[in-house]
Write a structure and sequence with these properties.
The protein has 348 residues and is of the alpha+beta class. It has helices at 3-7, 13-24, 51-64, 67-70, 167-173, 194-199, 222-235, 333-339; strands at 47-49, 74-76, 93-99, 104-110, 114-120, 124-128, 131-135, 140-143, 149-153, 159-165, 178-180, 219-220, 244-247, 262-268, 276-279, 283-289, 292-295, 300-303, 308-311, 318-321, 325-331, 344-347. It binds 1-hydroxynaphthalene-2-carboxylic acid.
Amino acid sequence: MSARQKSGGVESDAERAAYRKDLLSHNAKPLWERTMVMGPGNDAVPAIWHYRDMRPHLMRAAELVTTEEAERRVLMLENPGLPGSTYILASVYSGLQIILPGEIARAHRHSTNAMRFILEGRGAYSSVEGERVMMNPGDFVLTPHWTWHDHGHVGSDPVIWLDALDNPVAKFFGAMFRENYPGETQPVTRAPNEAETRYGNHLLPVDYKSGARSSPLMLYPYERTRQTLFKLARLGPIDPAQGVKLRYANPATGGHPFPTLAVFVQWLPAAFAGRNYRATDGTVMCCVEGRGSIAFADRSFAFEKGDVWCCPPWISYRFTTTEECVVFSYSDRAAQEALGFWREEGTA
Ligand code: 1HN
């Protein structure tokens, strides 16, 4: 007799339990008993790392560990909702890196895309595929997939930057590779600012084909970004949630600078009381100028220059400011758009 005939479609609890146990021995589970709820968001929670707390720890790291030992002297920012992950969000890695005058962070390459956002100090450079890129505060520097890169410092004060990588995405796919360069550093084979000269002036080499998936630029300097942002702030209009928010573009395609990571900068006026906003891309933000705060449903963080915080996917937030602010940010939006997953929602 079938289950349906025996008990009107419902087997006894004991029979079901035995059935479930038997299934488990075959590494299978019934979908109708699923515990995984289909819905947006994940275990990541909003969190902030204040620069006033992290800077002394970076200076201490510089006393305790050499770049030779560490390869990269980085404090990884781990989301408290993702313990053991070493990730700031489920899809994005972030860390704070410090380099001292005269130090070298030796050359390597990896399949993951990396970027730096400079927080403090001058005189450090990143060599990317033979081009030495000088890094100044507010600059955004690219190290795309599989490009050789090493860092050095010819200035006189410590330099600190925020690293962002798409490591969790590559790890998820099982496609993470890395390789050491045969020497400590790669030779300089390109002119200073060569990429900017070739690709950064609304002109492209006539036969240029965007074979690479990332922007051909190595550097988006803050000076130009800031000028544009403040001119647009005067021109308006201002978005009720985001102020004036721009995305960094790949000049060859108009798309995002990386296939996975989207990168943004925004200006918020003084005394801004922003509307609520949420999107499926978890976002890491960094205050470049000014003071304000970001409020989530259950907590809010005051931020100032150098502070880094994360807004997990589909959790609403709103900005308020005391001074006009510039906020730099990045997220996995490029990957989500390419795959068709990205959504946003603005509410009063
Ligand atoms: C990396 O290559 C750098 O090149 C920084 O500065 C942080 C974190 C994980 C894996 C590779 C760098 C990194 C990294």
